[in-house]
Amino acid sequence: xxxxxxxxxxxxxxxxxxxxxxxxxxxxxxxxxxxxxxxxxxxxxxxxxxxxxxxxxxxxxxxxxxxxxxxxxxxxxxxxxxxxxxxxxxxxxxxxxxxxxxxxxxxxxxxxxxxxxxxxxxxxxxxxxxxxxxxxxxxxxxxxxxxxxxxxxxxxxxxxxxxxxxxxxxxxxxxxxxxxxxxxxxxxxxxxxxxxxxxxxxxxxxxxxxxxxxxxxxxxxxxxxxxxxxxxxxxxxxxxxxxxxxxxxxxxxxxxxxxxxxxxxxxxxxxxxxxxxxxxxxxxxxxxxxxxxxxxxxxxxxxxxxxxxxxxxxxxxxxxxxxxxxxxxxxxxxxxxxxxxxxxxxxxxxxxxxxxxxxxxxxxxxxxxxxxxxxxxxxxxxxxxxxxxxxxxxxxxxxxxxxxxxxxxxxxxxxxxxxxxxxxxxxxxxxxxx
Length: 434
Ligand code: SF4
Ligand code: SF4
Prior knowledge:
Helices cover 42% and strands 15% of the residues. The protein is built from 18 helices and 12 strands. The protein has helices spanning 40-49, 55-58, 60-68, 72-93, 111-121, 158-162, 167-193, 211-216, 258-265, 267-271, 294-303, 309-312, 315-319, 321-331, 340-343, 373-386, 394-412, 427-433, and strands at 6-12, 22-27, 125-130, 148-155, 198-201, 221-222, 228-229, 237-244, 277-284, 287-292, 345-347, 351-353. The site of one iron/sulfur cluster has 14 residues, from helix 9, helix 10 and helix 13.
């Protein structure tokens, strides 16, 4: 067996505060570029011409459909999680208005203070970069007050994650969200005590697509599963941001070799029950990446406890990047690939699927409404008209009145600020839970 030549070694802090640091060898054949290949003028153009939409506004029909198709036990878990996390999510929305509680030390760069405090509080990965407004949701751009983004990754429980997809596994995400929502608020208080503003962007009420900023801050690279692969826990990290006007120093992106490694690995692509992940990278909004087909993913997520098979089967999640990359250097192989331990999973109504086995769903399974609730209602009504299901006369008039009532209701709920956490519970359900 011929060992691969190592191009460089990435040194990172230990997983927990106080742990010894780690060194990750990156094989020569995995080198592409630090961060992610991107064409910045294209990123600029798409962000201006087609700004990203807040899913809370843009996908209300999908959210409602998803809730209707969520099994009862998962609904109960989501209600519990909502009660646990929502007070902190709501509190976070107002943090940009809070004033510093002290005078700053003039000219002092507080990068190290912030990083040490964040790690003491339990964030395993911390990096700082510019808050990149090109990835901000259109409706939230004006809410974001400060230009420096402190990127914070929190580790989700290992054991529960290996039980994905299941209610037990899904709750791991909410436990992480609850902890980090609280510690994010504490970190912001700490930054204010050093004399600066700090605005908390809750993990459950994101202001932007966060992964590009985490990649820019050197905390990992984008995996073929569409998730951040960070050194210690791969895709098992949950992400949030605190923005600030403090004096800080930015981190640099890193080439962990993931961009190329994923093309060799492909485990998540092969194992996705919805066949939603694409084998080859495409250029999308100025970035080269493996693109997920949303319409093949969401129906699986709704019915199977948010699915997450693509997170569970990732070797970097399961074994950590150092172990995976060392194994690749030594053997040219992907650690765990082809094994039941890594690739196996169970879908509650369909049984167990080992390596090479995938569930079958009929085409109907993937039919979901698109965009906003009012758009979906118009589509539904158009289909009825085409099929001559809206006759002239009193019954057709009643049909029209019912259509009008539903559209007015759908429009009414989108007034004002977007609804934090609407991706988790639809509005009617939020009112019931609160
Ligand atoms: S969440 Fe499930 S369905 Fe969606 S991409 Fe991942 S593995 Fe596929
Ligand atoms: S499973 Fe393999 S291909 Fe998918 S994200 Fe993880 S390392 Fe990349």
